[in-house]
Amino acid sequence: MIKRIGGAYAFTLRHELAHCNGWKHPNTTDGRRFKVGETWDAAEGAKWVAANTKVPMPKLPTSTRILPASPPVVCVTPDWKPEPCKDRELKDVWSTARPLQKSDIPKKVER
User: Each residue of 43-65: pLDDT tens digit?
Assistant: First the structure.
């Protein structure tokens, strides 16, 4: 899906890993249009870059595991055995996360 909208996998992975490490940005630009290289103060000073920017693949620890494909949503035990998610308690913000939906992806903008 990333490739279909003109994005680069390594770039998207770096973006999402930044979120895992605490980086935040607003859900909207409030209609503001950015130029490549411009900083976005509301996003902790992040620099605006094109979605198809080529970056090196992040170096992930050898302990990194691939989650089972979804849908359906699959929960895994600490030893990576799939289990039903229905019995899990809501413990933190991550327990309420949902898979990426097609409607989450903005329509391609012609320039």
Answer: 888 888 887 778 888 888 888 87
Look up the pTM and report it: 0.49
**Residue that has been written with the tokens 């909207």 in this structure:** 28
17 touches 58 (CB < 8 A):
yes
Distance of CA 30 to the CA centre of its chain: 20
> At 16, phi and psi to the nearest 5?
-70, -35
d(CA 14, CA 56): 9
Amino acid found at 28: T
Backbone φ, ψ for residue 39 (5° rounding): -95, 150
